[in-house]
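Reminder to self: tokens first, then the designed residues, so the page reads top to bottom the way the pipeline ran.
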């Protein structure tokens, strides 16, 4: 391999050979370009520098006889530019300053540790690369100066504004200007007036778009001498960048003498002889009018016109529709010839049928019998142009296709490589062209090449192999090679694709398949194993090759086999239906594990023949699902249990059967919450503990679990963990709180007995147990409350209501007998009796609803009618209050005959609990889907946020004014809930509160 061009020869000078060898080892390891030679003294180093070439010197400071600074000064006298690095253990500002003054390239102080050698290697590489770059730049500058100073052609460089940045001495011979007179001036200074704007526009367009308006090679045009005379020149342009800015370089050759020699002077007979016998098309052009005076038969045949039709026609008759090749452009070419410049160029013409004819045109100033004419020789180059275009297309395609392309002959040398091929090898096209094939294929020597060459049969050969880049690294590639004979010589043409990424993907996929716990399987249509991935060894206990050829269904549990076969058949017959199935599979040890398999039929173009299946071991998940289902069943059983002990028994049985831990029990708190007493425990717990302990307030783990409400898991008593039962054979313990009710305790004789799943399931069991215990307590509380409410209801029905009836009857008698103020008092008693009777009836309804004695009979009720009646009633009672209503007709809802009282209570509440002057009440109804919303809003004092939920409790009142019994809103909330609706309070945009009542709406046909 070619490494010499990049290698860096370093001379390390140090009086300690062991240290020199160490430095050499580390430097060559850090950068494989570095090759280190050593010298033990400055004198030895100077002798080697005199005889050998080195790229860099690394020297110690403290050395016998001659120190590092003195050595540096001697080296600088011989070679001022050789990179020199002072690598010393004695560092000081004085030494560094002295070294810099002596011309040291870099200064590095020795340190402990290997990291310093990476820094030193980097400093060496940077110094050498910088020196090489400067040397190359100096060589380039020297060559450029030699070329420009001795060139007979004028050479100029211009910037993007056409300002001359450089001019060589020859410009004075051609144009009369010295280089100093042109530099800094516009290039248009040496152009005729008529060409200046065109030139500036062309440069500007190229700077903006990169598109050329003309050919840059041997471009003829008439320049302007300093004395004003025309100068016929031929110009070739190139481009480069300097400091990121565009530069153009032009080589200008004086062709004035040759141009003058190019004019023909023909007699009419000489002209006719040329005109009639020429194989090319010929046209005589009037240089002033731009018309065709005469054309020969060959020209007429080429453009598809009769020869006698074209004379007198303008050039535009045969010009294509493109300004660059139209009449004006043709006349510009003619004028340049008239000014002394011979012209030969490619030019498209339009045939009579509209097709394009590409021609090569040569224009000659010609005098025929003394009269100046323009003679145009025209040659058909359409086929050549098409070949050029095809070649340009192929070259562009080969260069941009992104695939390496190369061609080599029977000598093994590359005749052509594209940029992509060079990039694969870390080189460039220029370096590779001419290089031998075996330079990138070390396994193929020159002698073996002949056999390699002859091994290619006719047609295409596709291989995967490795080539070696110019860093010596192997690059995996796919090559497609074919043979072709061109002009008697056989070549091999090949495309080379870098498949590094594909190979890495294959390696990653192979590693995934080999390491994954998922099993990849390929079955044929009969269910026979064609392939089984290595993971079957870990998951199922089978060697993959042992399963190949076996029937997969024979390993499926008999109870699951029919379902799996049916799913497999559906997937085979319906290509759009993927296989998804769970089943039990026989492990190599005879046990059954659960698998979840997903598969699909590969597309027809797939390289896989068969049915591809991905299987995953879901045994743990299935067991977890079983445990969760068992917990749900246990929860239902606990909810239906009679008392706390029944609930605890179900919980302990579940802990034993579901969690598979036989030693467990539940400790329940006494009524004072001062003791935890054993309630229910397994037989294994009784056998282990004997008499189970009672826990009281203290710092025991069991009491701490209860008091703090946090679970405790003890993995190993022998590791120093605290246990309640340290006197027993217990090694691990799990304590889970049951809220205010007690603790669930599970223990084991072995350490680390409880997995994360065990802990999670125990917490779930404890939570469900806590709910069941709480439900029982709530039911007992509700039973007591119901009994109390039934007692109060009986008092209302008999004692209170009977007493009010008697009072009202006596008041009626008094009203009949009295008058004046006494009559008014009697009437007041009557009104209050009616109000009390009404309240008693409503309270009875609520109590019967709450106790379940009287389920309300719900039916369609006309909300609109009920609400309007209540609003009218309240309006007549409170005439000083303003009302706004938006109540549509009808609107049936699900309720009973108390709906009017319910809504009336809310409206009345909005008035009675507001002292706001100018109080206004807004009542509206709207329907939203299956719900009907009643909004009762006021502009009063509003309801504080903290009371918006509590106002519906018994004894609470709404709004800011807290007067009254508070029964009205409690009654309304209770009844609306029985209707299947709800009441909430919102802030009113105008201030105050809005009571929003949601009711169940019915179809319009549902009438009361």
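Designed residues (1008 positions):
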């Amino acid at each position: 391999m070619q490494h010499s061009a990049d290698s860096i020869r370093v001379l390390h000078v140090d009086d300690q050979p062991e240290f020199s060898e160490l430095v050499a080892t580390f430097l060559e390891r850090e950068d494989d370009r570095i090759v280190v030679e050593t010298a033990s003294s400055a004198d030895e180093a100077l002798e080697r520098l005199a005889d050998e070439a080195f790229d860099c010197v690394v020297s110690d400071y403290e050395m016998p006889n001659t120190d590092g600074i003195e050595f540096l000064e001697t080296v600088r006298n011989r070679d001022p530019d050789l990179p020199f690095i002072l690598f010393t253990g004695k560092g000081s500002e004085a030494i560094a300053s002295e070294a810099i003054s002596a011309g040291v390239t870099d200064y590095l102080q020795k340190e402990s540790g290997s990291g310093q050698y990476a820094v030193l290697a980097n400093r060496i590489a940077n110094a050498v690369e910088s020196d090489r770059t400067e040397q190359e730049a100096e060589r380039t500058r020297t060559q450029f100066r030699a070329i420009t100073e001795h060139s007979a052609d004028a050479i100029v460089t211009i910037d993007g504004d056409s300002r001359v940045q450089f001019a060589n001495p020859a410009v004075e011979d051609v144009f009369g200007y010295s280089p100093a007179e042109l530099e800094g001036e516009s290039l248009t200074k040496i152009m005729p007036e008529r060409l200046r704007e065109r030139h500036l526009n062309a440069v500007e367009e190229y700077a903006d778009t990169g598109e050329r308006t003309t050919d840059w090679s041997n471009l003829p045009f008439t320049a302007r001498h300093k004395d004003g005379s025309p100068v016929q020149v031929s110009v070739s342009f190139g481009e480069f960048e300097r400091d990121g800015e565009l530069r153009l370089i032009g080589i200008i050759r004086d062709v004035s003498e040759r141009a003058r020699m190019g004019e023909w002077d023909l007699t009419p007979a000489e002209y006719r002889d040329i005109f009639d016998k020429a194989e090319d098309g010929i046209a005589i052009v009037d240089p002033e009018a731009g018309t065709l005076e005469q054309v020969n038969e060959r020209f007429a045949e080429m453009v598809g016109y009769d020869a006698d039709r074209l004379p007198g026609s303008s050039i535009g008759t045969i010009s294509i529709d493109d300004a660059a090749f139209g009449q004006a452009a043709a006349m510009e070419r003619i004028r340049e010839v008239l000014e002394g410049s011979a012209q030969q160029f490619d030019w498209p013409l339009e045939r009579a049928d509209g097709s394009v004819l590409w021609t090569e045109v040569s224009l000659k100033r010609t005098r025929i019998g003394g009269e100046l004419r323009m003679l145009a020789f025209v040659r058909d180059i359409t086929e050549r142009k098409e070949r050029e275009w095809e070649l340009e297309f192929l070259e562009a395609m080969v260069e941009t296709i992104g695939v390496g392309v190369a061609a080599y002959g029977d000598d093994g040398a590359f005749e052509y490589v594209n940029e992509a091929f060079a990039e694969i090898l870390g080189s460039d096209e220029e370096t590779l062209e001419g290089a031998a094939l075996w330079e990138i294929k070390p396994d193929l020597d020159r002698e073996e090449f002949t056999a390699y060459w002859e091994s290619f049969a006719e047609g295409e050969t596709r291989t995967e192999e490795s080539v070696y880049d110019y860093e010596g690294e192997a690059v995996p590639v796919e090559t497609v090679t074919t043979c072709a004979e061109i002009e008697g010589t056989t070549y091999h043409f090949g495309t080379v694709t870098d498949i590094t990424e594909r190979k890495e993907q294959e390696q990653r996929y192979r590693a995934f398949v080999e390491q994954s716990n998922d099993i990849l399987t390929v079955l044929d249509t009969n269910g026979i194993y064609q392939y089984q991935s290595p993971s079957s060894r870990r998951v199922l206990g089978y060697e993959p090759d042992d399963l190949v050829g076996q029937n997969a269904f024979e390993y499926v549990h008999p109870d699951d086999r029919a379902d799996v076969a049916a799913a497999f058949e559906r997937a085979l017959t319906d290509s759009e239906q993927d296989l998804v199935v769970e089943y039990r599979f026989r492990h190599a040890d005879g046990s059954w594990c659960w698998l979840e398999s997903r598969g699909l039929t590969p597309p027809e173009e797939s390289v896989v023949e068969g049915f591809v299946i991905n299987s995953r071991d879901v045994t743990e998940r299935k067991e977890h699902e079983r445990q969760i289902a068992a917990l749900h069943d246990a929860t239902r059983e606990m909810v239906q249990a009679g008392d706390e002990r029944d609930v605890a028994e179900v919980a302990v049985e579940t802990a034993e059967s579901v969690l598979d831990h036989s030693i467990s029990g539940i400790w329940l708190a006494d009524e004072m919450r001062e003791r935890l007493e054993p309630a229910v425990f397994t037989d294994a717990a009784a056998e282990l503990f004997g008499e189970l302990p009672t826990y009281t307030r203290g710092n025991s783990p069991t009491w701490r679990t209860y008091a703090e409400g946090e679970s405790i898991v003890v993995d190993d008593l022998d590791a120093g963990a605290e246990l309640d039962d340290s006197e027993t054979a217990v090694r691990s313990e799990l304590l889970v709180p049951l809220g205010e009710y007690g603790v669930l305790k599970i223990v084991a004789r072995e350490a680390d007995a409880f997995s994360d799943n065990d802990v999670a399931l125990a917490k779930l069991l404890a939570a469900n147990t806590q709910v069941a215990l709480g439900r029982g307590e709530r039911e007992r509380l509700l039973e007591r409350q119901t009994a109390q409410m039934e007692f109060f209801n009986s008092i209302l029905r008999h004692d209170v209501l009977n007493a009010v009836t008697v009072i009202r009857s006596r008041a009626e008698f008094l009203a009949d007998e009295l008058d004046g103020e006494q009559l008014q008092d009697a009437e007041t008693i009557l009104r209050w009796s009616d109000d009390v009777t009404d309240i008693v009836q409503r309270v009875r309804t609520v109590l019967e609803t709450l106790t379940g004695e009287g389920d309300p009979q719900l039916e369609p009720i006309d909300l609109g009618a009920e609400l309007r009646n209540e609003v009218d009633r309240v309006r007549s009672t409170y005439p000083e209050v303003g009302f706004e209503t938006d109540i549509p007709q009808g609107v049936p809802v699900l309720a009973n005959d108390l709906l009017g009282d319910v809504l009336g209570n809310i409206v009345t509440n909005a008035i009675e609990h507001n002292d706001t002057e100018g109080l206004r009440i807004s009542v509206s109804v709207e329907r939203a889907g299956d719900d009907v919303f009643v909004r009762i809003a006021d502009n009063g004092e509003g309801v504080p946020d903290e009371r918006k939920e509590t106002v519906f409790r018994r004894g609470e009142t709404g709004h800011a004014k807290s007067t009254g019994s508070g029964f009205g809103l409690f009654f309304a909330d209770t009844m609306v809930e029985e209707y299947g609706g709800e009441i909430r309070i919102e802030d009113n945009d105008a201030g105050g509160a809005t009571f929003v009542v949601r009711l169940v709406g019915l179809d319009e046909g549902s009438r009361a």
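The first helix runs from residue 17 to 30.
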